[in-house]
Design goal:
Helix content: under 10%
Number of helices: 0
Radius of gyration: 13 Å
Number of strands: 11
Distance between the termini: 40 Å
Structural class: mainly beta
Order of helices and strands: EEEEEEEEEEE
Shape: globular
Length: 113
């Protein structure tokens, strides 16, 4: 059974940074693409970034140039480094295995002064 646990969310001022982590278990981690999504209040879930098992990355237009996704296959963990945060980045951030359809419980990110 796949288990994904996100951490690292919190309250940050505009322009600040946060790093989210997602620890995975129950899968052969290094062969799967991992992704981050987010959902703001009253909005649909939005794709943020993905990284393949070999490390190829892609980003949504709203975060390109500000967010960086990475992974440590030895630790079964995927990260999301978020810089230059804006109030519009406020959302619950979820980790996912797109090909398996698994989701974590989410971690809240609030960008506010």
């Amino acid at each position: 059974q796949v288990h994904l646990v996100e951490s690292g969310g919190g309250l940050v001022q505009p322009g600040g940074s946060l790093r989210l982590s997602c620890a995975a278990s129950g899968i052969v981690f290094d062969i799967y693409t991992m992704a981050w999504y987010r959902q703001a209040p009253g909005k649909q879930r939005e794709w943020v970034a993905r990284i393949t098992g070999s490390g190829t990355t892609s980003y949504g237009d709203s975060v390109k140039g500000r967010f960086t996704i990475s992974r440590d296959n030895a630790k079964n963990t995927v990260y999301l480094q978020m810089n230059s945060l804006k109030p519009d980045d406020t959302a619950v951030y979820y980790c996912s295995t797109p090909s398996l359809g698994d989701w974590g419980q989410g971690t809240q990110v609030t960008v506010s002064s």
